[in-house]
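Per your request, structure below.
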C-alpha cells in the first residue's frame, strides 16, 4: 500500500514540490485515512490544531485557499479581507477544488498546485512547533514548521479563523 500511495500522481506532485523547496523526502503514508483533521491527528498522535486544513473557496470567479488550524473554523469574511476581496468567499465545489489545486477533497495539499492560487494562512498555526498537512491523498501527510508553511506558500498570515 505504501509504495502505491507514494507513486500516486497527486502525492508525487507534492513530493516534487517539497524536493524543489529543499525539504527532502517528507511524505508519511498513514495506515488510517486522514480525510479530516481529527483523523489525521489521531493517526499521528498530535493535537488537532497542528493539522493544516487546506480549504478552497470561490471568490470573484476564481478559487482562493485558506490554510487553517484543524481545531479552528475559517472566518470567510476575515479571509476575504486578508485577500483583498470585495466580498466574503463561498465554499468551492469539488470540481473547482480539483481544477484549482489538482487534488481531490480529502487530500488537498497547501502546495503543488498547477498554477498560482491566492492563499491566506491562519496565524493561530504559529502556536505549534510541528504541523502536518495533506500530501495529495487521504492516507498521506507531510510534516512542516509554521515558518516553512509561510515560506513555501509565500502566503500572508492573518487572523482568518475562529475557535477555542
Amino acid at each position: 500500500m505504501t509504495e502505491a500511495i507514494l507513486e500516486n500522481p497527486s502525492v508525487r506532485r507534492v513530493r516534487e514540490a517539497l524536493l524543489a523547496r529543499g525539504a527532502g523526502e517528507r511524505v508519511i503514508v498513514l495506515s488510517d485515512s486522514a480525510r479530516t483533521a481529527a483523523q489525521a491527528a489521531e493517526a499521528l498522535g498530535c493535537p488537532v490544531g497542528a493539522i493544516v486544513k487546506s480549504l478552497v473557496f470561490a471568490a470573484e470567479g476564481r478559487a482562493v485557499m485558506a490554510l487553517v488550524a484543524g481545531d479552528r473554523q475559517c472566518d470567510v469574511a476575515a479571509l476575504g479581507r486578508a485577500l483583498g476581496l470585495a466580498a466574503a468567499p463561498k465554499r468551492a465545489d469539488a470540481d473547482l477544488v480539483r481544477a484549482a489545486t489538482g487534488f481531490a477533497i480529502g487530500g488537498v495539499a497547501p502546495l503543488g498546485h498547477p498554477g498560482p492560487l491566492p492563499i491566506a494562512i491562519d496565524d493561530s498555526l504559529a502556536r505549534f512547533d510541528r504541523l502536518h498537512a495533506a500530501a495529495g491523498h487521504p492516507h498521506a501527510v507531510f510534516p512542516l514548521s509554521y515558518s516553512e508553511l509561510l515560506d513555501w506558500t509565500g502566503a500572508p498570515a492573518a487572523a482568518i479563523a475562529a475557535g477555542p
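The chain has a mean pLDDT of 95.

Regards,
D.
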